[in-house]
Design a protein that fits this description.
Helix 1 packs parallel to helix 3. The protein is about 20% helix and about 25% strand. Strand 13 and strand 14 form a beta hairpin. The chain is α/β, with parallel strands linked by helices and about 350 residues long.
Length: about 350
């Protein structure tokens, strides 16, 4: 059953569809995935009690964003301590599907909401930065794997492919995701626009003030709602380790020093900030999305419609899975028994 609220339009032209969306701005419990899931459960229940129909968590909330981690890596160098650090990080990642995914699906169903969660996915011994999607019916809908990890992320995460670029057509709108600096990839954004994305989820680790400008631009460019979710973390939220490099701007080593400042925000298709940004603390960021604003915005600009020039500029997206190994089994022809 649709959870979209239909309210009378002020001009009598028709119903206006309102969706309540909530971002959870919070830190992972590092090296403790069960405790992170418990924390997620608390925030999901709180959001649901306030009427949320969609809840979004930040990038890598399950498993943890390895901010400042170096894993003993340098050009041409590595060490035992770094390898063991990665072992712990690998142990916090989850299999998709798997028991943690089942629990998140159960939480979505229990609280009757759509749920999008950033997670570190484990496939064999390769990790992926992934966004997981769940329905109010308690179903795991699917995932998006980050196409291009950034800087040192490429040493610890694999690259996604075109087979996981979903946009889900739901009763609350067409739902999809771009993770962190994927949002700087114009062609990837265009692919999401072409799939009709209406609620654009941007789980991220970028809490900079400049990020806010990117989110406003994407909302205007795509004519869609943009929900950007970033973790708020203090130094004490991370495992104790002497080799962290959190930032080159602040050398504060105090336990209460902010090392990920959040900045989660919700923006309308008209470029209006509806809620946030919050640079102060963990918590919920909530806004009511008037889906009619999408049509209002498209009057002026439709990036893959009336404001496109396919005769001049054209994008091809390869959605085939990119497998490293393909096994081809030779089938032996059965011997005719009549010849025996």
């Amino acid at each position: 059953m649709s959870t979209v609220k239909n309210t009378a339009s002020v001009d009598g032209v028709g119903p206006s569809s309102i969706v309540r969306a909530t971002i959870v701005q919070a830190s992972t419990v590092y090296n403790n995935t069960p405790a992170t899931l418990d924390k997620a459960e608390k925030y999901i229940a709180e959001a649901a009690s306030k009427g949320a129909e969609l809840v979004l968590f930040p990038e890598a909330f399950i498993g943890g964003y390895p901010r400042g981690f170096r894993f003993g890596l340098a050009a041409g160098g590595h060490n035992e301590e770094g390898r063991d650090e990665f072992r712990k990080y690998d142990a916090s990642a989850i299999k998709v599907p798997g028991p943690e995914v089942d629990r998140l699906a159960e939480l979505a169903g229990k609280n009757n909401l759509y749920l999008v969660v950033g997670a570190i996915e484990k496939d064999g011994y390769t990790l992926y930065c992934t966004a997981l999607f769940f329905s109010p019916q308690g179903r795991f809908l699917g995932k998006h794997r980050k196409l291009m990890p950034t800087t040192l992320e490429r040493c610890i995460w694999g690259q996604g492919d075109g087979s996981t670029i979903p946009v889900y057509d739901t009763p609350i709108g067409k739902l999809g995701a771009a993770i962190c600096w994927e949002n700087r990839m114009p062609l990837y954004r265009t692919a999401l626009y072409a799939k009709g994305i209406e609620i654009y989820c941007a789980p991220t680790a970028d809490g900079s003030k400049e990020w806010q400008s990117s989110m406003v631009h994407i909302a205007l460019e795509g004519g869609c709602f943009v929900l950007s979710a970033c973790q708020f973390c203090l130094r004490k939220d991370f495992p104790d380790h002497p080799d962290y490099l959190f930032t080159d701007m602040d050398d504060n080593k105090e336990q209460d020093a902010i090392v990920s400042q959040g900045g989660s925000v919700i923006i309308s298709p008209l470029g209006q900030v509806l809620a946030g940004p919050n640079f102060e603390s963990e918590g919920l960021i909530t806004a009511d999305l008037d889906l009619d604003d999408i049509a209002r915005a498209k009057l002026y600009f439709d990036a893959v419609g009336h404001y496109s020039r396919p005769d001049v500029l054209h994008l091809t997206v390869n959605e085939q899975p990119k497998k490293q190994v393909t096994f081809v089994t030779k089938v032996e022809k059965a011997e005719d028994d009549s010849n025996n």
